[in-house]
Amino acid sequence: MLAVVVIADVAGRLSECLTALGLERFQNVELHLLLASELSAADEAGVQACEAVTLHRLGSAPDVALAALRDNYWSCLLEYVNQHVPNRQEYLFVPASAGLPPHFMRRLLSIKRESAANILLPLSVRHPFTSAFLSSDHQPGLDVQAMDQWLSSYASGQLMDVPVLAGHVAVMDAEVVSAYREANSVAVDQVLQDKGVGMVLTDRLYVDDADWPPQRAPAGLPATWEQLLVRRHPFTGLRHALTDLSRRCQQPEATSVVNQPVRLHISHNWGGGLGRWVEDFAAADTGVRNLVLRPIGDWDAFGYKLALFESPTSDVPIREWSLNLPILSTLVTHVQYRSIMDEIIQHWCPDTVIVSSVIGHSLDCLRTAVPTLYVWHDFYPVCPFITATFEHPCTSCNSTRLKQCWKENPSERFFLHEGVEHWARLRHHFAALLNEGEIIQIAPSVSVVDRVHSLFPRMHEPIHVIEHGLGQDLLASLAPIAQIDDVRPAGEKLTIVILGSLEAHKGGGLLKVVWRELIEHYHVVLLGCGTSGASFQSSPSVTVVERYERAQLGELLRQFSPDLGLLLSQVPETFSYTLSELWAAGLPVVATDVGAFADRIKEGENGWLIAKDGADMLATLASIDADRQTLLKIREDVSRSLRKNSVSMLLEYRAFFPDINLSEIYFPLSRENEDADGLSFQGSLIVRSGSSYLDVLKDFCKFTNNKLRASKKVPRIIRSFFKNI
């Protein structure tokens, strides 16, 4: 049980503190309020909102209690909890006036458990040993969130032993609390040392206790310790930077990504539906940093390099690695790749890895110690042809069929340089990894689950179904079209829209077979068909838009006002964004009876399923054309149906995410702290011990030159002098 002891020291601040603590997100936590001030109405409302809280009056009157705390802060608190809140496993002490950064409690507790110390202290303001600044008199010019963000640029994840219980915020073990009944803080510190209590200061967490008066180093401390902790503090570099930034009130950049949990996406670089899913996922996953690791390659090798991107929409990687041995398709293992994954995990600390594709990767991406999800966007690497189609959708793929498929499948080959033995070995190891049960598997439709288990029965672990959701902006742009509750009257040609590519596997061949008859009876709009649209003859009944931006889809559909959609994929889709888009626009859909179409379309309710031949397609369209009242009713039903958005999709995924370890969310640490023995603080300068006077002077002149170049009012002769030194 963790006892959270909040000291109500300033009226009007308690409610804010309780909100920042977020105790409702924790189990086995009890709240104790030590009243050292009167409660405001807002404070009382905050207390009432807590599920369970114990109130204690500290002292006979607020002014007496505060005076006692200022004189002997820790002895007062330890004495009180020994009497009134004994025998808890851990204690967390926080003044209500202290500014707390996001995820404060999770981060503090995680760091303490990693440190194995008895007492953990965060950086603060008012004690010279634990201050984030060069002086405990410093008045921060930035709020706690801004300082929290800046901290990530200068912290190195160090822990520093401290000889006294300093500052006003600490988390400590129960045995520490029960050992002390001394009358003043000096005695408390002496007992800490006598008992061999491990007490450390972390540079990964900052709280703002500036409302309290500055403290001084305790009397009687060995001079060596005092000199180290005041003049040559181990965090001198960090403190100098934060003091300067705070004094100048310099806000961190708006694009700062610190103080966010991290997810790492493993993806290919082909874009398509997979790339879109990653983009939509990241856009919905607010407050979380979604990094993407993609391979860079070509048709000879899909992984010459690995590139880590800040987000799915980033064009410039934040880090690149050249692979000494390029990955042609996917490798079972790759020592350098494993080292790169270790580096990413160490420096960017993802709490979840989401693998959407292993093309251009090694299966080592599935072997990390980080909780991992695998999303079945296609059937690779179980099927090296990706779509699991050989003459017709495959329902099995034993070694004999794999060999035959490898020799005879006319589908496009993406992977040219490895034989069937490679694919048999790869999918064996792939299945073994997933069968270990540590990796959560997700598929966007039931048909994917059925086919994976049918194609490769040895993959026996469960696969959960979570449908993809559309981005909220796209849904909003399509909603007005869905409100149109009419179809063209009898005697006027219906307008049919076909979204997306018209390559052969997407139905281009089937469309060519029926094309002349189709445009004789219907207006046809081809949206986003690419250059394949040129192969369809031009006619007044045909409109071709080769490419469009996703944000333009709503306007295009509004312009052409189609009555229904047509999707003719010849291979099983694992989901189909185009189907979701047409439904979001209120359009019923005629689609081939394969894959996710068969899962999602309910005949006569939101669309129609057809065989993969032209006769059935034309007959179904003729039936719809002849009964436009039924078409209108189905369109009305589709328009009223709720469409899944990416936010609701994300909520379903979050059920499978682990509790976030927030002790590490500040990394990457962009610089290492200097050795404490190597720095000394001299006014506004930090000088490395052992540096010659000439080297220091040269660096000072370079610094001065840069400052002068930026100051155009300084006479040119002075600028020239320093430039020439």
Q: List the domain count as a whole number.
A: 5
Q: Using the coordinates above, name the CATH class of the largest domain.
A: Alpha Beta
Widest beta sheet: strand line-up: 3-2-1-4-7-5-8-6
CATH topology of the largest domain: Rossmann fold
Separation of termini?
64 Å
Q: What is the number of helical segments per DSSP (H or I, 4+ residues)?
A: 25
Helical residue percent? 25-40%
Strand percent estimate: 15-25%
Overall pLDDT:
85
Structural class: alpha/beta
The low-confidence parts are 661-684
Secondary structure: number of strands: 26
Keywords: Transferase
GO molecular function: glycosyltransferase activity
Protein name: Glycosyltransferase family 4 protein
Organism: Marinobacterium marinum
In short:
The chain has 725 residues and is α/β, with parallel strands linked by helices.
Description:
InterPro entries: Glycosyltransferase_grp1. The chain contains 25 helices and 26 strands. The protein has 725 residues and is an alpha/beta fold. The strands form 5 sheets. It has an 8-stranded mixed beta sheet with strand order 3-2-1-4-7-5-8-6. The two termini are 64 Å apart.
Strands, helices and their partners?
Layout: E1 2-8, H1 14-21, E2 29-35, H2 41-49, E3 53-57, H3 62-71, H4 73-84, E4 90-95, H5 104-115, E5 119-123, H6 144-154, E6 159-161, E7 170-173, H7 174-178, H8 185-195, E8 199-206, H9 223-230, H10 236-247, E9 262-266, H11 272-284, E10 289-296, E11 303-309, E12 319-327, H12 335-348, E13 352-355, E14 372-375, E15 389-390, E16 392-393, H13 399-408, H14 420-435, E17 440-443, H15 446-455, E18 463-465, H16 472-482, E19 495-499, H17 508-521, E20 523-527, E21 542-545, H18 553-560, E22 564-567, H19 577-584, E23 589-592, H20 595-600, E24 607-610, H21 614-626, H22 628-640, H23 646-654, E25 679-682, E26 685-688, H24 693-709, H25 716-724
Parallel strand pairs: 1-2, 1-4, 2-3, 5-8, 9-10, 9-13, 13-14, 14-17, 17-18, 19-20, 19-22, 20-21, 22-23, 23-24
Antiparallel strand pairs: 4-7, 5-7, 6-8, 10-11, 11-12, 15-16, 25-26
Helix pairs in contact: 1-2, 3-4, 6-10, 11-23, 16-18, 24-25
